[in-house]
Amino acid sequence: VILREKLASYGDLVPWMLRLAVGLPLIGAGFQGYIFAPTVTFNLGANPLLRVLFIGLGFFVLFGLATRIVSTIGLVTYAWAFVTEPSVVLAIEYVPIFLALFVLGGGRPSADDMLLEVASTDGTFYGRVDPVHHLKAYLDDRTRALRAYVPVVLRVGMGASFIYLGLIQKLSQPSSGLAVVAKYDLTAVVPVDPGLWVVGAGVTEIAVGVALIAGFFTRGAAAISFLLFTVTLFGLPDDPVLAHVTLFGMASAVFTLGAGPLSFDHWFGRPAVEDDESVVAAD
């Protein structure tokens, strides 16, 4: 109960968490030359505009400047990338984060929040020449009713990502998982058949994904996912770090917000805070 009440006080920091979670990887993608997922690369020399696009998106999101506009551009870019190269589905977690940022805006601290304060103050020259932040105030009002569903968007998106990794990457294509087991000699850590390693990892990821989508023991599932990411990050030394930043950010946001509406936790749990979804619904 105390934990949930404390987490409720962090609700206004969720947009900042999400901006960090996508801003840094997007900048890294632009500099390193990949499209959302590290496995989907592009030729920087032949596609300099893609490099500029990803770096620009990353910095704008990181600073929280024109957050909703940039999130929309990010969604369109992801849709284009998916049509062009379907394997970018490995980075499906960008979609729920962009959607959440479109609903929530930049939050605090952000350039949007600072500039809106200046733009909305009577008598300022900036307030007369900057229509973007007047648009932000308009969109804040229009999206207010949707904020309660941000926890649903995040946990379902994160759950779908887990199920894809467990079902498609491991159980349906075990060869890549077996290669990882052999490369890092994981059977020396837990002496079982390599196939059991792959099946165990796949089933665990699917179970966590189903729990997140159903909103069952949501904060516990988010904590388990955070632990899985940490073990992967430090246990596999050459694993791409930037590939996990978005998932770390999503896990942090889901742990903070809880299940929200349309979940087992909401329907059958004992609420310790008056409706977890109000955490993001309030100003």
Nutshell version of this structure?
The protein contains 15 helices and 2 strands.
Architecture overview:
The protein is mostly helical. It is built from 15 helices and two strands. It is 69% helix and 2% strand. It has a two-stranded antiparallel ribbon with strand order 1-2. A hairpin with a 1-residue loop joins strand 1 and strand 2. It starts with a helix and ends with a helix. Mean pLDDT is 84; it is low at 272-279.
Q: Can you give the helix content as a percent range?
A: 55-70%
Instruction: Kindly report the average pLDDT value.
Output: 84
Tell me about the largest β-sheet: 2 strands, antiparallel
Can you count the helices?
15
Number of strands: 2
User: Structural class given helices, strands, pairing?
Assistant: mainly alpha
The amount of beta strand, in percent, is under 5%
Return Rg in Å: 20 Å
- What is the string of helix and strand elements? HHEEHHHHHHHHHHHHH
Strand line-up in the sheet with most strands: 1-2
Task: Give the low-confidence spans.
Answer: 272-279
Oligomer: single chain
Shape: globular
Distance between the termini: 23 Å
List the helices and strands and how they pair.
Elements lengths: L1 H7 L5 H19 L1 E2 L1 E5 L6 H16 L3 H18 L9 H11 L6 H9 L5 H5 L2 H12 L6 H23 L1 H10 L10 H21 L3 H18 L6 H16 L6 H5 L9 H4 L2
Antiparallel strand pairs: 1-2
